[in-house]
Amino acid sequence: MKTVIIGTNHAGIAAANTLLDNYPNQEVVMIDRNTNLSYLGCGTALWVGRQIDSYENLFYTSSKAFEEKGASIHMETTVTSVDFAKKFVSCINKEGNTWNESYDKLILATGSLPISPDIPGKDLDGVHFLKLFQEGQEVDKELSKEEVKTVAVIGAGYIGVEIAEAAKRRGKQVLLFDVAPTSLSTYYDEQFTADMDQRLVDHGIEVHFSERVTEYHGKDGRVAALKTEKGEYPVDAVINAIGFIPNNQLGKEHLKLFKNGAYLVDRRQQTSDPDVYAIGDCATVYSNALQEVTYIALATNAVRSGIIAGHNIGGTELETIGVQGSNGISVFGYNMVSTGLSVKAAVKAGLEVSYTDYEDLQRPGFMKENAAVKIRIVYETKSRRVVGAQMASTEDISMGIHLFSLAIEEGVTIDKMKLLDIFFLPHFNQPYNYITMAALGAK
């Protein structure tokens, strides 16, 4: 059995490892147009902001590791087309050599592409995007320039907020723009995002929410200002972090697509073509909160989808258990984690939900090391099943969100959580735990 994998980041790597480690009869061919593989993009802001010493450890494997396992790997190679009827992909490498690579099974792990608004001045020098390692390097070089004093970040999602912090840590004046009324609006309700917004302001970031960038103005070929619906701002560099769209170029004419263009896959990652699987950011996922197919581009989802596709191709039938979209962020020492749906997202999806909020200290008041914790649990009003949770604190409360992820996956009701057996020790928490207290407060 010969499997060709197009794309060698998190999803493609997980699929390749699954096949190579478990199925000795597999011939695996890996193809990627990039110069590197396995880059942990979530660490870009950490090294750009000099919170870690270097970027080297953001790569967790190498081409050599896969060659040693028996894979044939082609980096800096572009797949120009796929012949789904004859089952081969057409390739061209950096030297200009072309060939066709046949397959028994094909895995599309082509990821996503950054959204690039078609506005005047988008091609000016000093306007950057942030996804690939090379783009992170360009942004890092930009922030190293003494003449770059004011940086505009477009998009206040996770990447935008993190890179805004990084630029501020590098001593730049930072302006953060988003069309949404708050930062992080995709995953959190306003009661949480307002705290992050204030954190950003307190650390010197100038926020411009509900403000759309309409054009860039240049001087001598380089960006010098940006214009919005509300005004014009002089800037020395721009970092775009608006979001991503699925990269469906190779299969969009042949395979069934989701409404946003992602490849529509079943619970085994199989597309509408039985010999083609799609994984990672180019494919759909099944949401346990929504109880339907959706699109959530996260590295964790990519890894799981790669494992599932690998086992099914290898001969072990395995279905996804679904995802919750669990995620987190830490900016200027403020930690926020969420899973499932916010109230806003649930209402937008047509769910009738209720929620319960609670705020307290992490530990008893007599403990010297302490901080406030805010929690919201979202549940379906009629069925009372938990469909989302959000938590925030300067404490590391991150592990708590996994409890809610499992609760959503298993269809646990808010009432089941009211008397959940949660241990108490002053070093860790309160006798009346905020998770319990939030659940008890549900209507």
Describe the structure.
- With 443 residues, the chain is an alpha/beta fold.
- The protein has three domains: 2-43 and 55-113 and 245-314, FAD/NAD(P)-binding domain (3-Layer(bba) Sandwich); 116-242, FAD/NAD(P)-binding domain, CATH 3.50.50; 336-440, Enolase-like, domain 1.
- The protein is built from ten helices and 25 strands.
- It has helices at residues 10-22, 44-48, 63-69, 133-143, 158-169, 190-202, 299-314, 343-348, 400-410, 434-440; strands at 2-6, 27-31, 72-74, 77-83, 88-93, 98-102, 105-108, 112-114, 127-129, 150-154, 173-178, 206-209, 213-219, 222-228, 232-234, 237-240, 244-246, 276-278, 285-287, 292-294, 327-331, 334-340, 353-361, 372-380, 386-393.
- The protein has a five-stranded parallel sheet, with helices on one face.
- A hairpin with a 4-residue loop joins strand 5 and strand 6.
- Helix 1 (10-22) runs parallel beside helix 7.
- It is globular and about 70 Å long.
- The model has no long low-confidence stretch (mean pLDDT 95).
Lateral strand order in the biggest sheet? 3-2-1-7-18
Which structural class best describes the helix and strand composition?
Answer: alpha/beta
Largest sheet: 5 strands, parallel
Specify Rg, calculated over alpha carbons.
Answer: 23 Å
Distance between the amino and carboxyl termini: 56 Å
Rounded average pLDDT: 95
CATH class of the largest domain: Alpha Beta
CATH homologous superfamily assignment of the largest domain: FAD/NAD(P)-binding domain
* Total count of domains: 3
Shape label: globular
The strand count comes to 25
Task: Assign the CATH architecture of the largest domain.
Answer: 3-Layer(bba) Sandwich
Keywords: FAD, Flavoprotein, NAD, Oxidoreductase, Redox-active center
Domain FAD/NAD(P)-binding: 2-306
Domain Pyridine nucleotide-disulphide oxidoreductase dimerisation: 332-429
InterPro entries: FAD-bd_OxRdtase (IPR050260), FAD/NAD-bd_sf (IPR036188), FAD/NAD-binding_dom (IPR023753), FAD/NAD-linked_Rdtase_dimer_sf (IPR016156), NOXase (IPR058076), Pyr_nucl-diS_OxRdtase_dimer (IPR004099)
